[in-house]
């Protein structure tokens, strides 16, 4: 029996994970569920999954959460705020933490889980992009485990199983990217938030959907892969694969390429991470090879989607540059979703921040939070100039 804290329970990843958990009663128990502001949805999930604790990020909504739990006849304890988030990530009765908060906002509870030696199922890619060095060190020092949920990294984890350190040291990673909703749309001048969020293959939260439309999502994933698998930028490639059937690949020195395939449904990587090293039913549709048709591949167009090259630039610069990239992207995407910044100005805004702010390396998490906050100020000024 595994006992789980699920950070970001009301989101796209959170609800998919709870769907997998509910398929295996007796195998998983929910200790805590968290959400930022939707108290009603959180109370409903906490009651349905018999959670012991529910944490709402927004402290003003704790009363609403408590009332909603009581109305459902649930004994679940209501809490709120950042300290409660970190505490449920570190609770002694918990062995597994799913980090599924969106953005750098998830960093502190994710780090707390790593520092207390939990099995960390990582969906919150912004946390590892910002704080890869601190997060990987915390996992090593506390003796925890890290299992990637992001479908590409989950695929690579599966393809690397059975290889030794020497073979991994010579392998090359190939991350696949669908290309997003604008792969074949040339005029992006008037793109609306709803158009950017209409992903052809995946249903996801709005922030990652915009990142997929700019290809920044793939850029963040290149940085994520570099930390997770100890790979330099030169050995991580990206290829556009519009069907999203191959979730990523590993090439070994003898020329063999291993790939992981599956229907585009996050319940597959979630089930893998939840059950590892076992395998459990996920609820995802099976691939039907007789109906699949062609699987195609092409090079990414970096002139149309420069965000991918910004990520390689940040990775090569090292230090806290990836945290600056992430902060600038979060600010620009939020401005786009709030219709304060045109879609085509997202990339120039981020590039301006990278040009203007080259941070000192961050030795501690406080250094990193300071850099994140300065980068956000710089990005807010850039948004105003590009609006
Ligand atoms: P989402 O927007 O659907 O859900 C985000 C969750 O985080 C919600 O429960 C929300 O309440 C919570 N949250 C938001 N802001 C918060 C804050 N400031 N403090 C505490 N909690 C907060 O997002 P999602 O699509 O589920 O993505 C979650 C993470 O997983 C992201 O990092 C994303 O990049 C990654 N991811 C998502 C998918 C996917 O298919 N959705 C795939 C791969 C990776
Ligand atoms: Mg992904």
Summarize this structure briefly.
By secondary structure, the protein is of the alpha/beta class. It has 17 helices and eleven strands. Helix 6 packs antiparallel against helix 15 and helix 16 crosses helix 17.
Topology summary:
Layout: E1 2-7, H1 12-22, E2 28-35, H2 39-48, E3 53-56, H3 62-71, E4 77-80, H4 81-90, E5 96-99, H5 107-115, E6 119-122, H6 125-142, E7 145-148, H7 151-160, H8 165-170, E8 172-177, H9 193-197, H10 206-214, H11 216-229, E9 236-240, E10 246-251, E11 257-261, H12 267-275, H13 289-292, H14 307-317, H15 321-337, H16 346-356, H17 365-386
Parallel strand pairs: 1-2, 1-5, 2-3, 3-4, 5-6, 6-7, 8-9
Antiparallel strand pairs: 8-10, 10-11
């Amino acid at each position: 029996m595994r006992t789980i804290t699920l950070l970001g329970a009301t989101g796209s990843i959170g609800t998919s994970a709870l769907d997998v958990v509910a398929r295996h009663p007796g195998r998983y128990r929910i200790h805590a569920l968290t959400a930022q502001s939707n108290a009603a949805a959180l109370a409903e999930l906490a009651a349905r999954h018999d959670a012991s604790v529910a944490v709402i990020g927004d402290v003003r909504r704790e009363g609403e959460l408590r009332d909603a739990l009581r109305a459902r006849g649930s004994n679940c304890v209501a809490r709120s705020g950042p300290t409660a988030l970190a505490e449920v990530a570190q609770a002694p009765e918990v062995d597994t933490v799913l980090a599924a908060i969106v953005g750098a906002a998830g960093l502190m509870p994710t780090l707390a889980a790593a520092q207390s030696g939990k099995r960390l199922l990582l969906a919150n890619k912004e946390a590892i992009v910002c704080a890869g060095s601190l997060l990987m060190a915390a996992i090593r020092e506390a003796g925890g485990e890290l299992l990637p949920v992001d479908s590409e990294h989950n695929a690579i984890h599966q393809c690397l199983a059975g290889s030794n350190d020497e073979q991994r040291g010579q392998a090359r990673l190939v991350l696949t990217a669908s290309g997003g909703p604008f792969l074949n749309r040339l005029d992006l001048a008037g793109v609306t938030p709803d158009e950017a969020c209409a992903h052809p293959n995946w249903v996801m939260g709005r922030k990652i959907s915009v990142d997929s439309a700019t290809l920044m999502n793939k850029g963040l994933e290149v940085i994520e892969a570099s930390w997770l698998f100890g790979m330099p930028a030169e050995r991580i490639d990206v290829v556009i694969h519009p069907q999203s059937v191959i979730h990523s690949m590993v090439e070994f020195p003898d020329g063999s390429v291993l790939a992981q395939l599956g229907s585009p449904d996050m319940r597959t990587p979630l089930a893998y991470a939840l059950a590892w090293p076992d395998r459990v039913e996920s609820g995802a549709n099976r691939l039907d090879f007789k109906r699949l048709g062609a699987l195609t591949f092409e090079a990414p167009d970096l002139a149309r989607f420069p965000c991918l090259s910004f990520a390689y630039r940040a990775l090569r610069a090292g230090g806290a540059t990836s945290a600056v990239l992430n902060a600038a992207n979060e600010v620009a995407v939020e401005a786009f979703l709030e219709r304060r910044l045109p879609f085509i100005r997202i990339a120039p805004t981020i590039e301006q921040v990278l040009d203007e702010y080259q941070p000192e390396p961050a030795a501690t998490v406080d250094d990193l939070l300071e850099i994140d906050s300065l980068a956000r100020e710089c990005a807010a000024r850039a948004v105003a100039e590009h609006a």
